[in-house]
Amino acid sequence: xRRLVVLALLIGPFACTGGSLVMAPTLAASATVExxxxxxxxxxxxxxxxxxxxxxxxxxxxxxxxxxxxxxxxVAASGGSVRxxxxxxxxxxxxxxxxxxxxxxxxxxxxxxxxxxxxCIENGIVHLRLTxxxxxxxxxxxxxxxxxxxxxxxxxxxxxx
Length: 161
Prior knowledge:
- The protein is mainly β.
- It folds into two domains: 2-35, no CATH class; 51-156, Calycin beta-barrel core domain (Lipocalin).
- The chain contains no helices and ten strands.
- The protein has strands at residues 2-15, 21-35, 55-63, 68-78, 81-88, 93-103, 106-115, 124-130, 136-142, 149-156.
- The strands form two sheets. Strands 3-4-5-6-7-8-9-10 form an eight-stranded antiparallel beta barrel. A two-stranded antiparallel sheet has the order 1-2.
């Protein structure tokens, strides 16, 4: 049990020069009452419920130079860590995204290609957003190099969670 102190404010007369009365708050009394312990507050910036993000996703991406391509993403969580296996089937490359929550519905991390580096740009940062509609949007940007960027939309693959 926690103790709450309750203060009562009353509006009482306050005299001013010139004979007029002005109403002003005055402290009347205080009392201590017992209140049940409240449940701890949830931090609005707390990490997301990872299971809502885990699963298989697919969609399309487009680079800043206009080139478009298919993308598949398989997301797994272990403890507080989130890893995603990414494949760009039309570009013949793929690798891993190592992600951390930045808000309740956003993740950011590094992309490391494990194959097809002669077909794809190596060394990127990815940012993901889970929308209210359940769509996963991503932005990718190259670190160093030419400064290429890409973005796209992924939808959950039915039956593969």
